[in-house]
Amino acid sequence: MQQHYRRSFGNLFNAKTWRALCSAVVVPFGMLLGCTATADTREVTLDSLSPTIEHRQATEVIVYYMERYHYSPATVNDDLSNQIFDRYLESLDPQKSFLLASDVEEFEPYRLKFDDALRNEDLNTVFDIFKRFRARVEERALFATELLTQEFDFTLDESYAFNREDSAWLESNQAADDLWRKRVKNDVLNLRLAEQTEEELTDTLEERYERMQRRISQLSANDVFQIFINAFTLSVEPHTSYFSPRSSEEFNINMRLSLEGIGASLQTEDEYTVVRRVIAGGPAAMSELIAPDDRIVGVGQGEKEEIVDVVSWPLNDVVDLIRGPKGSTVRLKILPGNAPAGSPPNVITLVRDKIKLEEQAAKSSVVEITRNDKTQRFGVIDLPTFYLDSAARAQGQKDYRSTTRDVERLINELTSAEGGVDGIIVDLRGNGGGALLEATQLTGLFIESGPVVQIKNSDGEVEAERDSDPAVAYEGPLAVLVDRYSASASEIFAAAIQDYGRGVVLGEPTFGKGTVQSVAPLDRDGKLGQLKITMAQFFRVNGDGTQHRGVIPDVLFPTAIDSDAQGERGLDNALPWDAVAPAKYKGWSNQKADYSYLQPLHETRYQASESFELLIDELEAQRVARNQRLISLNEKVREQENLEREADREKREELFRKAFGASGPDDSEDDETAVADIILEEAANVLNDVIDSSRQNKP
After folding, report:
1. Given 3.40.50.300, 3.40.50.1240, 3.90.226.10, 1.20.1260.10, which CATH number is that of 359-613+678-697?
2. Which carries the bigger pLDDT value, residue 669 or residue 587?
């Protein structure tokens, strides 16, 4: 049977095709993270929860692909089985709130047998474990609902551990009862503080716990298989995922519909719908009211319709509520991802629309700074994504839209305008990637011809993507501004500019996604689903990888807090940093660029800046909130904490207004714009330092 698969699908990843595949599009890192199981609307009987012949066939193909074609080939052995075992249980019960330690102990004999299960396509144990988990969820849902009939004492000084990812499994039913008593008490308290009546909050929570149980009881055999296989693939590497036939269909639909709705990529985590990525040009991005890691806990239609609690809802059902016709209104109840536990949710209003492609296009602006009574003008090119109208290009249309074309036009406008510009800043903050061809050609606007990025496939072959045009659109001072969300194509461009010594890179260490994925069908008919598999890796022209480390700026801004835990570095089983031989390339000048003198100048400036001090304080407060594990169940304590947070927020807003020279409390400029301005202004200051240094070094 493997011979059949080898003949049918082996050519998907051979040396001739891998380069064409990864040259087309570098998938934005936020678009495809994770794979959420989808459920039917009816309860699935326990008898139907068993592996099928299609599951056995898919398992054989997936194991073959992972061992033969993955960039870091899997070794299906006891060591991997050990990881799969833990990851499968964590996938089912990530907060360790349902399964008991006795359950896990009962499963322990299978810890080193999942490799045998994969090789023999014997998945019965996988389904037995899921059935136990489903039974525990039913028990907890019933227990939680019964607790709603009792009175809670909110004067007691007790706390609820809402984050149990690193906790031990529950030792007994009594321990589970105590945990769920506190969880229900916390749910009730949250709704009390949101001014729901006893009747309203009881109805809300009864529905929530019923949905929690129903969501699990509707998972089909295909869903269970998908969860397990992803426990396998994610134990190898975080960007490889399996899509069941139904998930494959919905994945393809979602990709086609990605330009409609509110413009946000969503994913289920625990019982919450979480914003994974905000798409430039969509209503969510343009509102500046939604950010990655925000949790959507309620959805309402129009201006007045009641907001429906969507905690524990299946992702598809939440998406259906959020989607709607262009021009219609949707209200979302949001728990900000950076808010401390127990913070009240915000309600925001969005008007549904198609993503405005012009908002994704490159834009230009000018930042002015004054030193010693002399004003310097710096052109800023804001680039949200690397885009290319490949269809129009393939049809031979002369005016097809592309990143490189738009940026070249903007450069000409900036340099030819009255007064011109003293330098250019390419702003790649939040740019998650896009077309590799555009990253290559955009680099070519700033360098003479040469290699831009090296790509290594799973067979160890390395080829370079090159800029073959010797023309240079701009030769002046250049800076590239990046942050923790700059990924893939953004990292390729920033790394090339840095390696050629063409410009200075500023900001935070980038995401560190230096791998290439391709989606491969497991059979011709689509009955077995498809596999998104990592098949190649990017390397800089100096030979270093962008994987894991990302691009380290020449000048690190103080916003780089917790950078070691962010991006690829924070993902389990991320491929490590690696290197290949350097490519042959000629630097921008005969001398290697030395920007070491810039960091002290930058630090002196920001340490004397009240604005930067406020920004750093805010980022530190967010870091503390992310690390919070316990929340008080005392009503007066919670009320006081909420009041203090609100007072602190208002104080910060007022300080921001003063720091940025706003006219007063009624100023329309929001905090996010202010934060963006200070970073951009400092980028201009650093580039001005480069210009001053070059002047001083001239004979």
Report:
1. 3.90.226.10
2. 587
